[in-house]
């Protein structure tokens, strides 16, 4: 019966589009949480094809950036600087150790070096953004990129579901959870999504520390370019982080911003929920089967390391 329904939908593109649009609109309503939106996207990906695949892929990136910038209107300069300063050493240590472990395991497991660099970079810094920045520098092909992104997105999805539960199990404060999710989860969307589930303070801390972590794309790209003896002309700087900082400054020092700031934050959270739905629609498990056991083992190993390492440091810090 289910197969007949799916076949009918496949043969009628209009119905396919209607279902996709209806679920997308549902995700920007207050009744759908980030976790539910991601789950809806994942389930949909297993049943029908995304009829707007190219458009939603580009739209996801822009909406994620816009939602992050909008969240800046819910923060002030002092708290942002405090969070960024506190998370600096933990960020540097986790990036260095994760990259080192990732490259060593790549060699030990006999994995393609470029895939190993992409997975290690995505895990250490900021998921798909880091992979996108590093891939042209090391001249990775489309298959290598898709493998790395597929694995990272899969683990991001798992993190969004399990991290809040782990945080409650260890009785992490809002501040602690924000710090942990910013360091241990790969992609910005999942970091912000998990923190949003945990609470408003966790969201503020996580967003600030995560975006500071994202800036490490630049030095990492330069290092890979130098090692490969290629110019760093293709390095992409995440300019939207500057707009995020500007939004914080405006919210802190311009009183008139109090009128629009709350609405900007609300819209940003709704956009983020839609982004997670769209990301979920890219996680087709049949395509992930092509990833291979060794790259998946590499990704899980270094992700487990950075998660446990950062959680231990946060729990035992004064």
Automatic annotation (TrEMBL):
Keyword Transmembrane appears in the UniProt entry: yes
Residues that span the membrane, as ranges: 18-42, 87-106, 118-138, 144-163, 237-254, 260-283, 295-315
InterPro entries listed in its UniProt record: UPF0324_pro
Chief localisation class: membrane
Any Pfam family: Cons_hypoth698
Record keywords: Cell membrane, Membrane, Transmembrane, Transmembrane helix
UniProt-annotated location(s): Cell membrane
Keyword ATP-binding part of the UniProt annotation: no
Membrane topology: Multi-pass membrane protein
Family per similarity comment: Belongs to the UPF0324 family.
Protein name: Sulfate exporter family transporter
